[in-house]
## 1
Amino acid sequence: MPHSATRAPLYIAMHERDNVAIVANDGGLPAGTVFASGLTLREHVPQGHKVALADLPAGSAVRRYDVAIGYALQDILAGSWVHERLLQMPAARGLDHLPIATAQPAPQPPLNGYTFEGYRNPDGSVGTRNILAITQTVQCVAGVTNFAVQRIKAELLPKYPHVDDVAALEHTYGCGVAIDAPDAIIPIRTLRNISLNPNFGGEVMVVSLGCEKLQPERLLPPGSIALIDERSAAATDSAAGLDVVCLQDAAHMGFMSMVDAIVRQAEAHLQRLNTRRRETVPASELVVGVQCGGSDAFSGVTANPAVGFCTDLLVRAGASVMFSEVTEVRDGIDQLTARAATPEVAEAMVREMAWYDAYLHKGQVDRSANTTPGNKKGGLSNIVEKAMGSIVKSGSAPITGVLAPGEKLARKGLTYAATPASDFICGTLQLAAGMNLHVFTTGRGTPYGLAAVPVIKVATRSDLARRWHDLMDVDAGTIATGQQTIEQVGWELFHRMLDVASGKKTWAEHWKLHNALVLFNPAPVT
């Protein structure tokens, strides 16, 4: 691809009524640059940052995505750089008098015939990986468990070639918390449902300290799981079948005794997992979580629209797709409630937004705290602009369901899974919902990764895709340069998903970029 020095000056407007556009050229453009429209830059404008397409009087609305992303704090002349210091952020949209289930798009034809090679589980779910997960009840056992996992990988895993990996579900919860507080249900059900993720094949192994508040029977109570004895085809309740290694048991004489116990118990699970084989399953068995992190002004131009197009393809194929990040959709709540399949779905979205508004108010912050220095360096002036680019990941399909944090998904189609916008909290909660494949878009770049599911990284800019060539899986920057359309990149991503779900490794898997779980805990810490 030619560099900006040899490419014609280019800006991108999102809507015909927009009065700002973003500079597309790598490295930005200098003062005096003349665009094909005749617009002349009055100053240097960095790549991804906004330029005024017309004179903007003080107090007037600055429009991008045909939405007022701010109001001019002073007169801004055409050709000027429009950045966050020149804008007053609009007030948040109220949660009353919203359009409710008013946008009902014409039904799209089913997308039949697409398959992948996955692992069928006894409970009917399908995994894209075959992983032994070791659940931990409390952060105190993390050091011992991690030591044991390294031994398992070195000594046992080579004997079981059909098992993809061993993952310790490390977190910072379990004790020193008000475990009976009403909101404590969120981290507890999150960890419970992650332990039952489809990529773990129904094998549940727990390491406990012994004295922690989150006891194994509270984390995974009788009835929460059913373990299948394949030899007898009989289901056994978790009360009898739950496999727990308790480090404070009197039988453990020192550190290596604890490690030996974990390794010994793990081998029985590895033996069962190793008997599993991939089989052809329909694309409808995909459970995809979409998320963005390290966003920039191109996120809503390239990567997120391509993901949104792919989301529509997945819904047409009968799959399950989740989009999330409360603060990054809050300013578009009217768009979401309009797309709700039913009034009940719209009301559930409003409840989640109201809960999160109250949560932020309790912490004496508001939604403006979301945008990072990197977001702003990438051209995003505030959360309103960021939200408009984030929402498009959800495509155009009706929103058929809403999940509260930590809940498990139980329907097909497009679901709004309410989560904080923090990358790892969002990813953790989508794992709890049953995600078996993750799509993550980024403009600034992040080495984000999860041990439990493959993460497909989509770069918003070709410059990032070139520099981070061994971290980014898909280059959506070709949309900005005109080399590909949104639809072409969306189809490319769809086929990439089927390949990855069938076992092809992502770059995050290649480098084993496995970050710890981050449980969302709004309850008090004691």
## 2
Amino acid sequence: MSAPALVMLALGLWGLDRGGMWRDEAVTFQVARRTVPQIWRLLHGVDAVHGLYYLLMHAVLTVHPGEVVLRLPSVCAAALTAVLVAALGTRLVRPRVGLWAGLLYAVTPMTGHYAQEGRSYALVAAGAAAATLLFVRAVQGGSWWAYGTVLGLTCWLHEFAVLLLLAHGVSLALARVGVRVWRGWGCAGAAVVLLLLPMALVSRAQSAQVAWLREPALGTAQGLLRTFLGPTDEVYWACLVLALVGLAGLVGRRGEVTCAGVALPLVAVPPLVLMLVSQVSPLYVDRYVLYALSGAPLLVAAGADRVAGAVARLRPGGRRGPAPFLSRNDCPDDGTSQGRPRPPSAPAGPDLIGSPLLTLTGVLAVALALTHQLPLLRNDRDVAHRPDDLAAVSRAAAREVRPEDPVLFLPAQTRNAALTYPGAFRGVRDVALAEPGPESGTLYGREVDAEALRRRMARLDRVWVVADRDLLAGRWRPGSPVERAKLSVLGRDFVPGEESVQGDVTVRLYVRRSVVSGGSAPRPAPPRPARW
């Protein structure tokens, strides 16, 4: 199943160097370059859920600290996921279904988006796909401990991957498995939950980090379905119809999991559970359930295979009458299954179902979907398609700000641009900073209190402000007293001057009102105090 991996690698490497990181990637970049003790200290206060990923990226960026290297693990993980999806389709149905499903996963725009992002979500998707494949093997007689180990590690990459346990539980219920299988799955699941419990307790105390989330609505679920199946109308409706056809094989023989019985819970259970929980405590973001996407191409490919079988039976000389949706073990291409003869309900007919031409037709259909969605993929490689561009902010600062100039970051999170691209801010005076992030165990550094900030700003005639435009416009109010003090002093004592806007962030010069009204030039900036 190298074809899905090659396609995913080609799409993932295409335009990988966008020339700028957005804020979440920048956090990965600057945290992963800290020492291991500094990362460990940070995790006690924030981002515990990403701790394992930060440690992994610490090792990766030791090779070369660059944007392309930052994103390469995600590209490789997406390619691995495409292979694992193909392996699932092959094991649950037949090789052709696996090939189609793997290719569909690779060309889905959502897959490509997170394959080019320096965050953990593509790696979580790979772990979830591997755990699902091991789950299927365990039901068929394999090891439950291998399944539990992989799922446990995946949950430590992101704790919401634990919802995969619920999806697999639904698959077992649909398969009507025996007590032995339930016991094996239950023991593995209990081990995963116990392993995850320490991180869950720590991340619970850090829930203020997701306080910005809101309750998902019905439109949220509809939007996720469209994202999973294909953003464009033509691809979406074609895939939706095929996925519904693929659901026809939801329940198979007692004790055997089917493709639909695995894929439907995988694609539906984690997002729905997280959306329901988010009605009480908002936690839902689509990237948190990226791993559920792998179920969608399996359903679509299984539906396409069922349609192909129906078309074959309609041809002259083809098999007539109803034909059940058979698994690969029931009806392999060579007519036998682990030494058992082909079931009587599937008599031999013209070999269109096993025809390489039919397989090629499905591949061409995926290629057509890729061509149709190519403009979306091309736009996604543009740095402007991300939430922000810290490289552009740093370039704007480099044009305006000079060494020894005072700079105020409003809110403190905008300091991310200086931490990620320090060259543009080298030698400036960070007005509010008391202790840098690595030393203080914080993401953006520890700032002085409100009173100390007022004293520092009282000595300034001019200050460059790197700020969130919505905050300056009053569209939201900060909760921190220090951030409110920044706004208060700027509004009372300073007037805005020249600025350079980059998306939602502005680099703006503020000049003291008394200087402007007096018509005199601002006095030179005082020497930088040692504590700054």
## 3
Amino acid sequence: MEQKKFDLNSFIGLILLGGIIFWWMSTQEPEIDETKTTNTEIVDASKTTNNANTAVVNETAFENDSIKQIALKNKLGAFAQSAISASQGVSILENEVVKLTIDNKGGQIKEALIKNFKTYDSLPLYMIKDNNASFNINFGTTDNRILNTKDLFFEPTITTNGDNQIVSMRLKVSENQFLEYRYEMMPKKYLVNFSIRSQGLSNVLNSSNPINLDWSLNGYRHEKSLKTENTMYSKLYFKSESEVDDLSPNESEIVNQLDWVAYKQHFFTSNLLSEKPFNNATITSTDLVLNEEIDTVYTKKYQLKTPLELSNGELNYNMKWFYGPSDYNLLSSEQFAGTDLDQTADLGWGIFGFLNRTVFYPVFNFLKGFLSNYGLIIILMTIVVRLIMSPLVYKSYLSSAKMKVIRPELTALNEKYPGKENAMKRQQETMAIQRKAGVSMMSGCIPALLQMPVFFALFKFFPTNLSLRQESFLWANDLSSYDTIFKLPFKIPFYGDHVSLFPILASVAIFFYMKMNQSQQANMQAPTQEGMPDMSKMMKYMIYFSPIMMLFFFNNYASSLSLYYFISNLLTIAIMLVIKNFVIDEDKIHAKIEENKKRPEKKKSKFRERIDSAMKQAQEQQAQQKKK
């Protein structure tokens, strides 16, 4: 076997190869994980009065290297500087009533917390959280780029103006060229001043491209009754051309001279107000609840899309944000004068809203100044309302008593003029008897009609009254929502999956009231004429149908409303019993009617003459038809 010889050339080659490998490894640095080298800076500017505080939290977002600068310059053009020096983080504006968290990315409100209120399940009440809202300006640049502010980073600056806290968010091209969002929060107020302005961007913004503002929000569910909150009291309100209106769900509308939009979620509202009205603005409302068993996070999606106008090549808009309660007492206060935001409290239209504003709210606020138990306030308010309405109850009952006295004469009249052929003559004589006796069918109807506006006004008053929200009384833990004494293991159509006691009590009271009122209504009706429907039979059915209908309807409605109707009907029954047994004397009424008959008949009004003339002509035509 041949012995191997030492190869000097191979040995030198290995030494050289090893040296090259060692040199290559020594010149390479380990790769740095950006996420592990993030610096966090906390700037506390909370030294303001009224326990308010403002804070900034920043995290390095980009490395300032030449390669990235080139990439950002290619992508963002003039606004590349904002990304190069950008930092992820938030700024906080907070006072006694609201807390806003403003994100460096987009310069927009990331969280809006309404303090001193909780959701139905006792959680903090956020209007904005977890990306349910977006505020964006879409614009074009002179270097033919289309950018969105929601994707860009703003640089925050914290200052104060007296007791006011200010956060300035700037999207910079340079130190003297920028787009600015300026937020200014005052102590103890929900309104936050907000302005959008640009400086030195007249040669950067492309005026030939539209500049569009887009503000959208998915409204969180806050209340116990999802159906009531979503279908009845969550709406998009807006003020356009000096008129306040609302938009129905799943609709879109283009409006001009738009002063403000309000995204209402029953008791709470997100508002954007502008001193310079928007034109050609598109507002949209979309119902997000398709199935109440599944869709329980959001109620509606609201959206505003509007073009912004340049002034001398720059943006300049003064606005206000409002994240707070839809409280009529608050929205009708001096700080909201001239805005008409109080109309978003939804007190009803026409006379119903008038009664709520001028009668029921003043009475409620007066009683609230003396009592802290809202159940007792409702009971006392009900007593006040029924006492005010008692003259109408008396008038109606008096008319019923008068009709009862002349009823035998009307019955005799039906016997004297039987058959359809005498219907006109019978009606004429009936009206003559009523007129001579001083009795009018309308005198009984008018008091009942006058009470209807009160009914519908309170139908709006109680479910929208913020003071009643999450206030308990007896077994009801929230007077603004339904009470529950028993949870059903199944759901009854139109009724629900729970049993509420206040609607049951209200329905029982309505039944006894209608039962007692039946005899009064029977007295008010003239004897049934031949060929005419018997109204008394219909009333008998209504006595049972109405309470059942009310029971189903009010089972999912505000317990404060059921409490009011329960007490109201009890008081009405008591008032009717007092009037019947201690006020009305049928003998005196009969004597009065006989006295009225002896008096000469008053001169007929022109309206009465026209009616008598028309009835006479109809009677003559009937007689002619008989002869044929």
